[in-house]
Amino acid sequence: MKTWNKKDVSKEMIRELMDKYNIDSLTAAILLRRNIKSGEDIQYFLENDKRFLHNPFLFSNMEDAVDRILQAQEEGEIVLIFGDRDVDGISSTTILYEYLKSINIDVRWKLPTGNDGYGLSTDAIDDFYKNNGTLIITVDCGISNNEEIKYAANLGIDVIVLDHHNPPEQLPTPAIIINPKCLDSGYPFPDISGAAVVYKVVTALRFSKTPLYKQELCLLTVKKVNEANTIECLKIQNLVKKDYLSETIIPNSTPFSKTRLLKFLQGQQIFVWDEALTTKLMKETFGNSIEFNFLDLRPEISKLIPQIQNISLLKLKTISKIAKYNLQEASEIQGFYNIFVTFINKQQQKQFPQDVKNEEKDLQLVALAALADIMPLVNENRILVYQGIDAMNKGKCRTGLTELLSKVGLLGERLTSSKLSWNIIPVLNATGRLGKPELGVKLFITEDSKERENIASKIIELNQERKELGARAWEIGSKKAEESINKYKGKLCVIVDEEINRGVSGILAGRLVQNYSVPSMAITFVDDIAIGSMRSCRGFSITPFLDQMSDIFLNHGGHNFAAGFSFSKEKLNEFYKRLELLAPTIELEADSEEIKIDAELPAPYLTPNILKIIDKFEPYGESNPELTFISKNLKIQDATIMGKTEKKHLKLILDCGTTKWPAIFWSEGERLNKDFCKGDSIDILYQIQRNTFNMTETPQIVLTETYRSL
């Protein structure tokens, strides 16, 4: 049986979170057990507003990328989007294509098809050059295409790289690179998907339509501090904080020309919250000989946000949602900045309502990409995925996704990250795995509804083929796995077989990891090229491992726990020799079967209201698994064994007082009348989910483990 652990958390810490963030004790306890303690982390579990997303202009090269795309628009250039063949690449390509097309850029797109290799190719560059193309934008790829980007430059073609994969030591040049994993990216969160990177660029392009794009302006506040006045100034550009200055001055003690304010404010557009009060305090500080030219923002902001019309900055800083998650005590200048950003965003939404609708469509693809690429559901990924799924559940499903949901029987159901991960993402991924990723893009961008229906049907057929190929690959891999693991002393599993379809090598490697809990490779051959996928676990990072063999690879790259590589078939023996040398250096964390418990729920807590807590922690996925609870001494009111073809699943009805809970125990039917019987009381480890049948939702318990109550 699996062991479990419920981490102790102090009542004082629970009370502190409850008071600070106005949350219930159960939510506070769960956050603490998951080591989510700081306001910076907590905000992404308690908030889902897009205001909490990171500003795209935090990317150090974002203005360069935006300006180059706007130049292409202005000069009527031909632009090529080159993407990847998976869900992230398909989503990235679609988002950027739809936006560039909407601003009348002559844009084309291309993905690797058939047996094409990963990333930008010289053949694609040559074809584009022949068509007089001048700008290539790679999405979800490109960061390792050093030679190809240099080749494009020699032909006079500029390249923008929008990627999220681990960068090589030598970055491609000349290129404008937007990649959160680059050390000098400037971006505060490295683990967003390729589609999220594209979404950030499109968001920046949308902002470039406003008068504030690239304009530097200054927010200024003055407050009395004892006998002195404190003047705070914050320079911002594209809504990003650029510079800050604070001066505390006793009135009439220092001429304005002798302060740092003169240089800081020179030539600035200065915005204040209350012009009359600010001017009065500035004259009190420096005398009447200086004229200040301030722009009062409160009247303008009050038109869009009337509830703050008569609120001072002192009060404003205390009611700011954003400010309560900051480590530092809220200041007036910070409150002013927060309300200014909110105002500009609302103003932009009002001015460009179509952008709001298109953004909802984009975020649905961003959500799919994050789940498909197994991005950690922490930080802003939580909001990106939440917003995308929320749009789907509000009946605003984008074209293409509607048809796919219909084909798999999910249209009209309440969607979750889990349902999408199991039912939509593998289907869409099948297009790329079988060399036809263009079907994925066409599904999303085709305007004719009948054609979309036909494409969706083709994708369903491809997914069925993918399942059959996957089953065959597993048949091959499972026979060789133990021998390979023994060869590499339990540190690595390597399956090489030409019968494995290249499109399912990643699936096979992932399944090997899941079953044997060791880093695994699955390698097949296309003509004279060996093509491999590697998946990892137990804290072992793939990238440095593969880098040690870079001299024999044609290309390689990916993420820390999922990557791909290729090499000439003639180097297979050399590859084996390298693995024998490198495998002993692999260090794996202990393979723990311990289940971490989020909370113990007494029977009276088990009412349908508990779903409010479950929903609060959605979306679930990587780095945010489903909540696991323990409850003790629950009586089994009824028990049956069920299953469509084979009766092997167990369904219990548990007496929790006012609520009788259905509980499913998958593949554990044989335990009935052996480990427990109807009428017994048991302790359970479990998750709580919604079960949908005939469009009706009911809450149910999904058991992880049971113990007879003592």
Main sheet: which strands, in order across? 3-2-4-5-6
The dominant shape is globular
Number of strands: 23
Largest sheet: 5 strands, parallel
Total helices: the number is 24
Termini, distance in Å? 17 Å
Mean pLDDT: 94
Strand content: 15-25%
User: Helical content, roughly?
Assistant: 25-40%
What structural class results from the helix and strand content?
A: alpha/beta
Low-confidence stretches: none
Descriptive notes:
The protein has 710 residues and is of the alpha/beta class. The protein has 24 helices and 23 strands. A five-stranded parallel beta sheet has the order 3-2-4-5-6, sandwiched between helices. The protein has a five-stranded mixed beta sheet with strand order 9-8-7-10-11. Strand 4, helix 7 and strand 5 form a beta-alpha-beta unit. Helix 13 packs across helix 14 (353-372), helix 18 crosses helix 20 (449-487) and helix 20 packs across helix 21. The two termini are 17 Å apart.
